[in-house]
Amino acid sequence: EDAGSCLATVLYPKTKAPPAVTIKCTDTKDQKQIQEEDNRLYQQLRHQTKPIIANNIPDSYGNIEPALEPVWALAVAGSSYIMWQKSTENLGYFMAQVKSAKQWVSEQNY
């Protein structure tokens, strides 16, 4: 989903200090539209008749079932913090595959 474009600059100091990150983004959608799309995804996941259980997203050939694209997108977003924390000037991380995913069902309404 294209919500905008961003340019990030990451400077790695020679010390053990964390990198200095500067991010500049431009939205292609307004905030209300983004929130409406987020809510539609939430409602879709919340009202499924059975929880999502999936393995190997994407598969060995790079394919992602359309129904699992939101799972992949959430995994990429969640892994970005770990990648940022663990990357260095000489070492970068990229999430290649979600080995397994299982949706937890909650009776609470958020």
Automatic annotation (TrEMBL):
One of its GO terms (molecular function) is metalloendopeptidase inhibitor activity. GO terms for cellular component: extracellular space. It comes from Todus mexicanus (Puerto Rican tody). Transmembrane segments: none annotated. Keywords: Protease inhibitor, Repeat. This is OCX32 protein. Residues 1-33, 53-110 form the Cystatin LXN-type domain. Pfam families: LXN. Belongs to the protease inhibitor I47 (latexin) family. PANTHER family: LATEXIN (PTHR28591), RETINOIC ACID RECEPTOR RESPONDER PROTEIN 1 (PTHR28591:SF2).
